[in-house]
Specification:
With 369 residues, this protein is mainly alpha-helical. The protein has one domain. It has 15 helices and 3 strands. Strands 1-2-3 form a 3-stranded antiparallel β-sheet, covered by helices on one side. Helix 2 runs antiparallel to helix 3 and helix 14 runs antiparallel to helix 15. The chain is globular.
Length: 369
């Protein structure tokens, strides 16, 4: 028998927003693959397959008490590190990046799963090491180490976007759990002064992406092409858009990576400013509902885990939309549930499953100190 309180405490609005975003993503991918000749790419069918598989995983995640994950965190983290190391030796290379592991017809991107594994491990660390007056520099050495290892391995693939997301999520979670002012100012100063060093570590193509972000007109047919064509697509949508399946930039193949990194550009061209705003509102509703789960959690591990998941989704949204609009460099970050990607779908819906799990089991717990 299923306890009726699970259903009573289930977050139906959160699930509804996720289903709506998933549906819009499939419709958008169908349009992105629909050519001017009337033929359609099957990428949307593959996305439906991954969403179905991810939905099954989400149901499995709902079936057990999420608090057990705090004890599983070291094994989850170790597993993610092993897959990241494996990528460097036996990973599949696509477009100059070695980011994928393949098992027969199944291909997945370990760096996507590593993001969630890192969030779980950070949440477990902050839960077990409770600092009442805020974290100092010494207290933050361990969380920094937790993030640094996958950061280095992902940079080596190379995948600058995903590695930067790990840093953004770490910073967000540290601010959530509390940090001493002295430690905050020290880290801020260190971050600013380390920019030249980080720049020296970037590969030439990564430097070109940053330069094309600042001056895209310097190389309109080379490094600046993606950003320029994306802005043309978004701008051509105007207020109400060109209509579904009527986007010229995507249908005439001017828009690169329109199934993945620039899926939002396809959406903006067809649905215009109003449609884009409504899509972003859906994401912010998802983020607000996730924050509500974190705030109302009756124990700290659930709160830390929920906030980390929300931070991960938030930074995906900010970086992808900023990249599409030319406000940030092109770093290859997908838009969850809208961009095509099996690994991204699995990671996102597993994360949503954890949020629903935390919300659903509130009644089982007493408020902690």
């Amino acid at each position: 028998m299923i306890d009726r309180r699970y259903i009573t405490n289930f977050d139906w609005p959160l699930l509804g927003v996720v289903l709506l975003l998933s549906m819009l993503g499939v419709l958008n991918l169908y349009s992105a693959g629909y050519s001017a000749t009337g033929s359609a790419n099957t990428v949307y069918l593959r996305q439906l397959y991954w969403l179905g598989l991810s939905g099954v995983i989400m149901v499995v995640v709902l079936s057990f008490d999420y608090r057990r994950i705090a004890e599983w965190a070291p094994y989850i983290y170790a597993g993610s590190i092993i897959t990241l190391v494996a990528v460097l030796f036996i990973g599949k290379t696509v477009s100059g990046s070695q980011r994928w592991l393949g098992f027969g017809s199944l291909v997945f991107q370990p760096s996507e799963l590593a993001k969630l594994a890192t969030v779980i491990t950070l949440a477990s660390y902050f839960y077990h090491k409770d600092v009442k007056k805020g974290y100092g520099l010494k207290d933050l050495l361990a969380p920094a180490g937790i993030v640094l290892l996958p950061f280095i391995l992902i940079v080596k693939e190379p995948d600058l976007g995903t590695s930067l997301l790990l840093l953004f999520v770490l910073a967000s979670m540290v601010l959530f759990v509390g940090i001493k002012w002295g430690a905050f100012l020290t880290l801020l100063g260190f971050g600013l002064t380390s920019v030249p060093f980080i720049w020296s570590l970037l590969k030439d193509y990564q430097k070109k992406r940053v330069e094309s972000f600042l001056w895209p007109e310097r190389d309109p047919l080379g490094s600046g092409y993606h950003a320029i064509q994306s802005k043309i697509a978004v701008g051509s949508g105007k207020i109400l858009g060109k209509g579904y399946l009527a986007g010229s930039q995507s249908k005439l193949d001017f828009l690169p990576e329109q199934h993945t990194d620039f899926a939002f550009s396809v959406f903006a061209e067809e649905w215009g400013f109003m449609g884009s705003i409504l899509l972003i509102i859906l994401y912010f509703l998802l983020i607000l509902l996730g924050l509500q789960v974190a705030i109302r959690s009756k124990e700290k591990f659930g709160a830390f885990l929920a906030f980390g998941i929300v931070a991960m989704i938030f930074w995906h949204l900010v970086v992808n939309v900023g990249m599409v609009l030319g406000l940030m460099p092109v770093v290859g970050v997908p838009l969850p549930l809208i961009s095509y990607g099996g690994s991204s779908a699995v990671t996102t819906l597993t994360s949503i499953g954890l949020l629903l799990n935390i919300r659903m089991r509130r009644f089982m717990l007493q408020k902690g100190p």
